[in-house]
Amino acid sequence: MTDPETRYSRGFAFVEMTNHLEAEKAISRLNGVILWGKPIRVEESRPRLAV
């Protein structure tokens, strides 16, 4: 995901999985992994809150 004004990365992305079990495995295996010197946070997406 990139910011439309600056074209820089917004620091997150979405990934679709084939089923819930595979998604849970990916989340548990990747959450906290160090990538480019920083830990990544992997979570299931949540609906947007109403403004």
What does this entry show, briefly?
The protein is of the alpha+beta class and 51 residues long. Helix content is 22%, strand content 8%. The two termini are 22 Å apart.
Percentage of residues in strands: 5-15%
Uncertain residue ranges: none
When the domains are counted, the total is 1
Distance between the termini: 22 Å
Mean pLDDT: 89
The total of helices stands at 1
Radius of gyration (CA) equals 13 Å
The secondary-structure class comes to alpha+beta
Extended strand count: 2
Biggest sheet, open or closed, and with what strands and sense?
Answer: 2 strands, antiparallel
Order of helices and strands: HEE
Written overview of the protein:
This protein is of the alpha+beta class and 51 residues long. The chain has one domain (1-44). Helices cover 22% and strands 8% of the residues. The protein has one helix and two strands. The protein has one helix at residues 20-30; strands spanning 34-35, 38-39. The chain has a two-stranded antiparallel sheet with strand order 1-2. It is extended. It starts with 19 loop residues before the first helix and ends in a 12-residue tail after the last strand.
